[in-house]
Amino acid sequence: MGATDSFFETKREWSTLKDFILNYYLEPYLRKIISTRVPTRIADCFAGPGRFEDGSEGSPLIIARNIAKALEHTPHADLKGIFIEKRYADDLRGNVKYLGERGVVLEGDYEERMETFLNRCNSERNYFLYVDPFGAKHLAFEHFTRAQARCTRSLEVLLNLNSTGFLREGCRMLALTREIPDWAKDADYRVDHKNTLEHWDDVTKG
Fold first, then answer.
1. Which domain holds residue 129?
2. Per-residue pLDDT for 105 more than 90?
3. Smaller CB count within 10 Å for the chain: N or C?
């Protein structure tokens, strides 16, 4: 197994499924939530560039398209998309610029910018968090606990949790030598400063 650095070259089968679920969820959610006439924020917590190199839409463009569609019906709705991204922030800005002030890119990594996001949360808004990380190592469940405490009006979270990647990385760090089953070999992960036993212990405590 090895770390991937080409995730956004081609949209893969599981990304297609995840994005289908996101799109399928957002349309009725926005139709319902706008009717409350309460300001609403849709946050993509691991946004990426917005588009794959093969031209396929990523989650930011799916969110942006749904926001734009909702605003066609209710143009004065207080509705914005918030996109957290560090590595591909410039590409992302270009891909969601048609939203204007309705699309906000928070440049930085998830942990850093979630602090910014949570500090801006208030009880007078609806919030929807789409959380699709590059593996479970990026998930600090304390963020969701804090979001629940602050976003008391309405909070929904759509979370993708790569349990296969979690188990595989744990086995790697524990130097377990069992053969990896075929179904687990294609689960991409990225090696960075979070690939430590101490960090994974913190994740499992969540």
1. 13-162
2. yes
3. C
